[in-house]
Amino acid sequence: NSWLTLRTHLSLIAMIILFGVFIRYDEESDTHWVETKAHENITSDIENDFYFRYPSFQDVHVMIFVGFGFLMTFLKRYSFGAVGFNFLIASFGLQWALLMQGWFHSLDPHTGKIYIGVESLINADFCVAGCLIAYGAVLGKVSPVQLLVMTLFGITLFAVEEYIILNLLHARDAGGSMVIHTFGGYYGLAITWVLYRPNLHQSKRMQGSVYHSDAFAMIGTLFLWMFWPSFNSAITDHGDGQHRAAINTYLCLASTVLTTVAISSLSQKTGKLDMVHIQNSTLAGGVALGTAAEFMISPYGALIVGFFCGIISTMGYIFISPFLEKTLKIQDTCGIHNLHAMPGVIGGIVGAITAAAASESVYGKQGLINTFDFTGDFKDRSVLTQGGYQAAGMCVSIVFGVVGGAIVGSILKLPIWGDPADENCFDDEVYWEVREPATHHLLFTIQPLGGAIGPPPLPPPPTTHTIRSHTLPRWLCTGTEHCVLNSGKMLIY
Known about the structure:
5% strand
């Protein structure tokens, strides 16, 4: 805890200094907007990008803090860590992301300043999403200090691979199938592979879910599912591109739900549904359509992508996750390989094929230029070449995720970060003040079958047996006993 306090205070001081040196408002959020309107003959404030982007920003922001946070509350005793540490690393990460992305994308060479607006906030949230995905792989097994270190390096790696993919290769990835999900997925998997715990079975009693924890996790699923069209369309071009991305994602997600339910039911001998599949695999379509969301994939094409993603993701939870843990020693707590890594790769492949198959007859000449941004240095690029660069972008994201994750995992493996012992993983009590539920006094009498039940006599001094209130055993009584349940203690008279 002292490490955490020191680290957060130093991080805050560093952020304040760096923001003071580099960060400024852009022209649409500065008070000089009035002069900009007059100079550019803008007649209304509605032309300010805030009014186009802020609704999408709100949706993405909810996904980051509520969606991702609650999705990870499925563990029976790690809800505080899921939501609380998600809150911590997202808040730290978005500040570092504004700086890192600013240095790579919007640093003014004349003034040396980074100018931020509402689109910068969206991109910072996207950057944080990659680290939150990685958090899912190590959920319950690392300390908050390790999470901050993982986020620091993750944001840095993200900014570099994003610059290579989007600027140097000029690949299109509006919803981040490659840049966010593929990178974040393999980054987390590589870290948890390096941090493999051979004795993690000592915490197996805490690794499962209970009825109410799965219900809370579904809150995260529903927030993510509802707002994913905003996620994939948030930074696309105004007008038809943004409109098309929302429609395609909407249809793809709906299709994914149907196939996930079908495969989940078929996988069980009883035909019942598995809540793990419903919480996670129903979102895989949104991941897979991120790259091609703004392309002319057509509505039925979006349904096809969702159909296959529901199957592949659900089968991943049934077959691939156990294989990865048993054979490759990858302990993936949340199954991010099935929700983010595999669907991200599928998204990259779909994007490459869709780009290579684009034609002027479908897009129109200007539509083709607008969709793939064939301007400036890229004005002579063909759609086949674009498809090749899309595939190259996917390879870059995998390499950065795997290699970067292995290096960061090696740093996190150093015995200085205060990570929990094998027997204390997946338990909030290691890092959180867990208050017991309100005191309840229950006075009752238990007699053998056929005995008369009457008012209890005055009890003798109690003998106290301390036990977990949520693991109370069944008591076999041979006579009259009086029990008081008080803050997790069974008092036997």
